[in-house]
Amino acid sequence: MSETASTARPSTALLPALAPLLHEWLPRQRWFAGKGRPVTGFTLVSATELLPPDSDTAPGLLHLLLRVHQTGLPAQSPVDCYQLLLGVRAALPPRLAPALIGHLADGPLAGRTVYEGLADPQLAGLLLERLRTPGTLGPLRFERAPAPLPGGLAARPLGAEQSNSSLVYGDAYILKVFRRVWEGANPDLELPLALARAGCPRVPAPVAWFETSEPGPATLGVLQPFLTGSRDGWALALDALAEGRDFTEEARGLGAATAEVHTALAAALPAVTLPPAQVEHLAAQMADRLEATAQAVPALLPYVPGLRAAYRELAALAHAEGPARLAQRVHGDLHLGQCLYAPGGGWSVIDFEGEPARPLAERRRPQPAARDVAGMLRSFDYAARSLPGDPDPDWAARCRDAYCDGYAGAAGSDPREAPALLRAYETDKAVYEVGYEARHRPDWLPVPLAAVRRLAARG
After folding, report:
1. What pLDDT is attached to residue 42?
2. Angle in degrees, 0-180, between the axes of helices 370-384 and 233-242, rounded to the nearest 10
3. Could you say which DSSP state residue 30 is in?
4. By Cβ atoms counted within 10 A, which residue in 12, 110, 159, 408 is the most buried?
5. Which helix (H) or strand (E) holds 415?
6. Which positions ≥6 away from 151 have C-beta within 8 Å?
7. Are 56 and 154 within 8 A, CB to CB?
8. Pairing state between β 272-273 and 231-232
9. CA distance 299 to 277
């Protein structure tokens, strides 16, 4: 089938037939960001047949970019665009029953069954084959690094993610498929590519990726080495707590790894000096988030006066030279779960996408490195308070100090030497956590509130 036909045939009559099924299926997906707001309609951005569904026995694979219209969005909010990979079969085998989306009664695929294509190992294997052979198909462009990719690797979904979907191929590679698509380069491709060019060994280098040109250039997926035998820092920290073990050696090594990544990013991509007005604006944004969260979560109200002091101290740094005005590209969502440890290989840092709920332009903006450090400090607190029984704040304090010690040893500067900057970012993170837990996990609300009490008392 020609490239023109690959996008033309499904794009005209498919959406009206598919829309009733997507109205039911999309809001149930873990990666769907619009939960709680009614879906009012869809706009098809592009439709590409990666494998035409022309056989009664063989499956087809259809790639869609779809804008999802919803009520209850703030004024001027962009309409979210999602990436769907739909399998198409005459009949769904029992093993794929959990992936069912529904049966099409009309349209160009009338009588066929559509389902989550990434759940089908055969179709997941087809996606790897496309990445092995760079080129374009309709608006899609597939690229890879110079080294060849092996074929025939068995595919399995990785079920732990929420905002995206990932496939593991033969325990050798992992493909992250971005579900919510933002126009522009995704940091989860942009930053690891820059770090690979800089020779930073702490981040797995992308080996292949695919993008779209419609509605504008956007990253759709990234293939990287799968670090077999590694465990994430969150699981390791919980094991240490459960066994009553110290975690300071691991925390110190993680601090050094973070500093190495920051140093490489500052060398590979432009760093800037923030003008005073931008530092003041940053502090004002933090204060606004505090006020909005306190209105939504009354338990935060008693601590607001003490927390405001952190943002006043940050604003006071606007006209002074120092770390508060030094900005570079950062991870943006650093915590224990974003770090992998391999015995004999040390720490690796993954998932440079940043906080998926924030606009892409904001995630790509240079920021003080203290933002990442504060995120990790909060993660140690979370770990210390996550197991049943009495929390061990001393465990978290030791880890926090060891992490900063390791960072200082590798970076040549200690984040604790800029206490106002670090406190402002840690306070902002804790306030965000209060809002998140109140909405999604009320039982966890005491965890960030404990940090809020500590930070407010310092004010």
Report:
1. 96
2. 40
3. T
4. 408
5. none
6. 128, 129, 132
7. no
8. unpaired
9. 32
Name the nearest CA neighbour of 85 among 3, 161, 167, 145: 167
Domain ranges for the chain: 3-225, 231-458
Average pLDDT, the chain: 93
Task: Quickly tell me which residue has 């690891």 as its tokens.
Answer: 192
What residues contact 180, with CB distance under 8 A and at least 6 apart? 31, 33, 80, 81, 82, 83, 163, 356
pLDDT of residue 6: 41
- Which helix (DSSP H) or strand (DSSP E) does residue 177 occupy? strand 173-178
Strand extents, DSSP E, 52-172: 60-70, 80-89, 100-103, 113-116, 135-137, 140-144, 155-158, 164-169
For 435-449, write each residue's pLDDT tens digit.
Answer: 999 988 999 999 999
Task: State whether the Cα torsion 313-403-386-204 is positive or negative.
Answer: positive
Residues of the chain where predicted confidence (pLDDT) is lower than 50: 1-9
Instruction: Write down the pLDDT at residue 57.
Output: 79
5-to-2, 47, 84, 138, 265 alpha-carbon distances in Å: 5, 10, 19, 9, 43
The pLDDT score that the predictor gives to residue 2 is: 34
Rg (CA), the chain: 23
CA nearest neighbour of 192 among 269, 134, 256, 136: 269
Reference 99, options 110, 111, 84; nearest CA is 84
Cβ-Cβ contacts under 8 Å for 101 (sequence gap 6 or more): 21, 22, 25, 86, 114, 115, 116
Question: What's the CATH architecture for 231-458?
Answer: Alpha-Beta Complex (3.90)
Do 53 and 88 meet the contact criterion of CB atoms below 8 Å apart?
Answer: yes
Tell me, what's the pLDDT at 388?
Answer: 84
User: DSSP of 333-366, one letter per residue?
Assistant: S--GGGEEEETTTEEEE--TT--TTS-HHHHTS-
Backbone angles phi and psi of 345, in degrees to 5: -115, -10
CB 60 within 8 Å of CB 102: no
Cis peptide before 215 (omega within 30 of 0): yes
State how far the Cα of 346 lies from the Cα of 35, in Å rounded to an integer.
38
230 token code pair: 């590694």
